[in-house]
Amino acid sequence: MAEAGSWPSIRRHGLLSTESLLDLFEVAGTRRTEIMTRRRPALVLLEHPQHGRAVIRDQKPLSEAKLAGCLCDGLTPTQWLRMLNTKVFFWVDPRRLTNLRDARAYRRQRQLVLRVDSRRLIEAYADRIYLSDRNTGTTSPFAHRRGRDTFLPFATNGRRRVVELAIEGGVPDVRKYVLRAEEIGGDQIDVVLFERS
């Protein structure tokens, strides 16, 4: 799920992590540090004379206070947020997408939903894929324990259940793997923007 209106940018630049977007849009200094290391209560708009506009999603479901209480391995909330901001995330179960769309913070907003060919994506990015058995970007309703072993490399995941699939840095060529891109919700008619035949 991405911000409505972002399909042209994603098609052009790929599905990029927050860190990779900041690199592309040449965001530096204090603004970059704040975006990478602090919880985002609202969307962040990036603008660039060559690359146009991009939106970095909020982190409303995450509480820094709750996060501080559930981190282990000596991690701080700042370090956890930085870790999240180096990855892009995919749900492996469509029900999780539905739950996120129906969450109070998002249910009235229009969203871009990308459905991807997971087999081809995994084959292409296996060395940069990390799997998690929990939603790593929320502390609600429960702040589950999380640490350095929350993200396991794809090759070493074993039999652990998978909730999230994360790709380090992002997927610059995501358009090759998208099966369907559609804008949904927001009390408007759903619109298919792209569908692979």
Features:
single chain, 4-stranded antiparallel sheet, 12 strands, alpha+beta, 197 residues
Summarize the SSE layout with pairings.
Blueprint lengths: L1 E2 L3 H7 L1 E2 L1 H7 L4 H9 L6 E5 L3 E5 L7 H7 L6 H8 L2 E5 L2 H9 L7 E7 L1 H8 L3 E4 L19 E2 L10 E5 L1 E2 L6 E8 L5 E5 L2
Report on this structure.
The chain has 197 residues and is of the alpha+beta class. The protein has one domain (2-195). The chain has seven helices and twelve strands. It has helices at 7-13, 18-24, 29-37, 64-70, 77-84, 94-102, 118-125; strands at residues 2-3, 15-16, 44-48, 52-56, 87-91, 110-116, 129-132, 152-153, 164-168, 170-171, 178-185, 191-195. A four-stranded antiparallel β-sheet has the order 1-6-11-12, with no helix packed on it. A hairpin with a 3-residue loop joins strand 3 (44-48) and strand 4. The mean pLDDT is 94.
The count of β-strands is 12
Describe the largest sheet: 4 strands, antiparallel
How many distinct domains? 1
Strand content: 25-35%
Order of helices and strands: EHEHHEEHHEHEHEEEEEE
Number of helices: 7
Overall pLDDT confidence: 94
Physical arrangement of strands within the biggest beta sheet: 1-6-11-12
Helix proportion: 25-40%
The end-to-end distance, rounded to whole angstroms, is 21 Å
- Shape type: globular
The secondary structure category is alpha+beta
Unreliable sequence segments: none
Question: What is shown here, in short?
Answer:
The protein is an alpha+beta fold and 197 residues long. The protein is built from seven helices and twelve strands.
